[in-house]
Amino acid sequence: MGKVLQIIGITVGVLAVLGLIAGGITWAVLANRSPEPPELRPLDWWEHCVLYQIYPRSFKDSDGDGIGDLQGIISELEHFPDAGIDAIWMSPIFESPMIDFGYDISNFYKIHHEYGTIEDFRELLEKAHSLGLKVLLDFVPNHASTFSEYFEESEAGNPEYADYFVWADGYPDPDNDTNRLPPSNWVSQFGGSAWEWSNQRQQFYLHQFAVEQADFNFRHQPVRDEMINIMRFWLDEGADGFRVDALPYMYEAHPDDHEGRYPDDPLSGMSQFESHQLGYTIPLYTKDLIELYDVVYEWRDFTDEYQKEHGGDTRVLFSEGYANISMTMLYYGNEAGATGAHFPFNFDFITDVSAESNARDFVYVILKWLTYMPFGAVPNWVFGNHDNNRMPTRFRETMVDGINALNMLLPGVAVTYQGEEIGMKDGYVSWEDTVDVEACNRGDEDTYHLYSRDPARTPYHWNNSTSAGFSTSEDTWLPVAEDYMELNLAKQKEDARSHYKVYQALSSLRKHTTLSHGEYDIRAFTDNSFYLVRSLRTYDTLVLVFNVAAEASDTIDLSRVPHLQLPATVYVASIHSSRDSGTIIANNIVTLGPGEALVLRGPPI
């Protein structure tokens, strides 16, 4: 028996040794074998696109009236493929009295006369599609203009439209027998009560924005049906999808759930606000109600069914929703299996990061979205829009190229607001020239600038001619920013180094498989600088290093960057950098100037 065990022991030992040898041989063979390229999932057109927001009123004026229009957009459509843009979405172009410059729609089925006609829209679609561009429309379902047929018929008591909006009786005023008090203390986003009295109907109507923007009643099924009809109309015309506006405000608390009355929002306790000012209350009953997500899920079901019925490429829904991270993620869908918008816009770089933020703040904001995002969902990155100060104004001019590089190298969809590709800053708009309803309602001559969205909406700088090439008229709807002689597209095309040329290089690099399919890692080197590395087996490794500080220099150690093997090549550098494209980086220790960003290209992992 002992001999048997001894033999077995010897046999096991021999086999173990042979196994080690065989394993070593196998390892050696594998080490010398070229790795197989990974199997890549084909991406839908929108999943890694560059999406550009056009503010039509300020993009290009074709007829000299000082207002941008559809023919103006048509005349400059080649700008988008030249810049590497895949899809455009236009702020509302529908018929409107322009109280809120298109976000107060009076007819959802007609083009606003200052912008053109349905024939102009069809021409725009045909040319854009011939250039390989997708075209999205801005859909505003939360409210309609009080000049719309919907509201006029509802106010008049027409049974077909009577419940299209949120109407309420209000309460007697103990100090005035002829007066009625609003149904609740809700405050409009533009200041003042969110309720407005109608003498004709003898009731209050709800408006979460301007008085002239009455909130639809989404608890009324015909309203929900009409929203589908509107979307179907524009999809039939050939639109590729919608950016959907102001979704958090679609639902409000209902009296049936609160002892028969509209509940007051709790007070914020912030003494600097008066009862008519936004910030006086906490919008507990007027924002992010769970019912709104079911409507978004219905719309996604509709667009998916539309594609099945009509064929062609995916029609998309991109949703706007300033909300906390958990409520924002519900726009993607829910754990019960409902599918929502293709993505909700990610505004964290607008709301949570500024010029005072350090590198760790940037990293945190990025990882927060990617951590909370549902598995398999597509992220997106937004650094500016028509409602907020322009990106170079909120950050610093030296950071423009680094922020555009971050946008282009992160996974998912890169969103560019009109002018970011050339680093446009806010224009100055005096109180006399101010037209923004929010600024006029919430501010005065001394405070309007705290609320005005006009500076981010000034006309696009095409060249250094009259009105920056935006219009042949010197009288434009908003004044052209004073820096247009030096900061314009034509000049940046001619300059040896410019924001636009960096943007073009980045959008070209974005077609690289490493960026469309690769893994990511992002970490701070110091308080000032961080890296973003994108890697994919058998494909080049791409790395962004970015000093977000205003300090003169920051020293980083590239040996900390996973998968980066030196020497690496500078693919593109910010225009303030002392390094040029093609510079070889051979040493791990690198010093970055203020705002300096480098995109490095290294060998595959």
General description of the model:
The chain is of the alpha/beta class. Among the domains are: 143-215 and 253-285, Oligo-1,6-glucosidase, Domain 2 (Oligo-1,6-glucosidase, domain 2); 518-602, Immunoglobulin-like. It has 16 helices and 25 strands. Strands 15-14-13-5-2-1-17-16 form an eight-stranded parallel beta sheet. A six-stranded antiparallel beta sheet has the order 18-19-20-25-22-23. Strand 13 (241-244), helix 7 and strand 14 (316-319) form a beta-alpha-beta unit. Helix 12 (400-409) packs parallel to helix 15 (499-509). The protein is globular. It starts with a helix and ends with a strand.
